[in-house]
Input
Amino acid sequence: MQGAQRGTRSWVSRITPWAESGAKPLSHPGCHESCFCQWWQSLHRTMLRGVLGKTFRLVGYTIQYGCIAHCAFEYVGGVVMCSGPSMEPTIQNSDIVFAENLSRHFYGIQRGDIVIAKSPSDPKSNICKRVIGLEGDKILTSSPSDFFKSHNYVPTGHVWLEGDNLQNSTDSRYYGPIPYGLIRGRIFFKIWPLSDFGFLRDSPNGHRFSDD
Amino acid sequence: MAQSQGWVRRYAKAFCKGFFVAVPVAVTFLDRVACVARVEGASMQPSLNPGGSQSSDVVLLNHWKVRNFEVQRGDIVSLVSPKNPEQKIIKRVIALEGDIVKTMGHKNRYVKVPRGHIWVEGDHHGHSFDSNSFGPVSLGLLHAHATHILWPPERWQKLESVLPPERLPVQREEE
Output
């Protein structure tokens, strides 16, 4: 790769050597520089090499940046927009927050963390709730007005999630504890609206569990 | 001296360029397209690991097929264990959402699989930690679809999606 080719990335050029290299003219014995030969040569040199080379380069860059984006979202974190009223007043509808995925991979999710998880009844949608109990915890499941208190123990490998807006939240009180493997990341910082910029507050509902 | 330094710098630059291209692409491929894994345990005998501890099968796990969480009854799938998130288990899909299964060893005799869940079982009944122990599993825990056995070479085969006839669901969800 010399001359004009020095700026290109070497691995892209290796895929399309015939397009990038200075190919020898397509002539055959008996061709006397006829009109067709000339037309074919100019087509090959300008259009095919230019367009095809550019297409391959574009595809290559798209794949590369797509892979970097996947690695960033999967292993580090990303920006998420939350919708729904189930985490008010901590997170309002259409707030933009920053979620990190390192805690999930190192199994560092604590009680009181706000997490994003895959919904147990619809794997393609995400839910955003607070962790109330980890495995082994005893959760109070009866409402405060009940006379007889009922408790549930969170099974191994599961977590108990509840939204901060207890009246308007479909959470573990409805579908039970969810497996830890469904958790995608931990939300710890709010970006938008700017009036609420900063780290997220503790639960407004106090403690509804007792450690065992 | 200036020449040797230029040589080192050029190599370092090429290495960094290659590294930042190759590593994300490889990681994305292994996470999203396909990877290989060794099967341990006897819960899927005789389909997988018929030799027990002498030889473990190595299977090809296809992530691309389950990117939309579409599985069929009889598929062999790998999923995150609901009891231990650090471990992945490999089992056969017996029933999809809406089916009613007759369980073997579960606390309820008949279970209707809820929406967004599947019922998985190992082929070696009685030696398998599966839905008969922990109930239906959420589709969000689905990891990959095991399509082929790659090693040992005498066991090269495509894994078929067949349901054992005695494990057909009692009632299927009508499409």
